Amino acid sequence: MSQTPPAPRLPSAQHLPRATHVLYLHGFRSSPRSMKAQKMADLMARQHPDVAFECPQLPPSPRVAMQEVSAQLARWALGPAEQLVVMGSSLGGFYATWVAERVPAAAAARVVLINPAVTPEHDLARHIGELTSWHDPEERFFFRPEFVEELRELHAGPLTQPQRYQVWAATGDEVLDWRAMQARYQACPGLQVVQGSDHALSDFDTHLPAMLAHMGIYT
Question: Which of 141, 156, 180, 208 could form a disulfide linkage to 101, CB 3.0–4.6 angstroms apart?
């Protein structure tokens, strides 16, 4: 018997402190050229140029990727009056959770997750070997066996402040199981179960206003 997803929770009408810095973390085999990353970069540049936006190209090694992300946050040197938002899609959602829970500079960050990976060490174990980038088939990289253990080491544990999280889980995700996302983030008031859609959240534009509201950005 299939489980019926709950109706999405509506975003709070409360006006949150406005984001001053947005860090976007892309998914496995993805890049800053992904649809969602490009739309976010374009939106920030055109309508909110005062908001610092970064979407770094993450290396294959999860450990090195998180070292580079931590270094980016250190370069920003966020002060108490500044508000960080960490966005992440798929594997980037797993990474964003680790950043929010484990990096001191992100201890007060708000988080937006789009179809986040929950147990990537299981999902990606079958991808060990030489791979290509989704956005450039000529670009090749190796996903090494030790990267699976690095993913296992990056599990963030229980969420310390679930209210910081807005999570989008699409029931039509063809790559990851939305029920695992729902179970992982069930304590989050901002959990949104999207009927249908897909892993890329192709109806991203429909949900973007609610994401921006969670960031304290109103257009």
Answer: 156
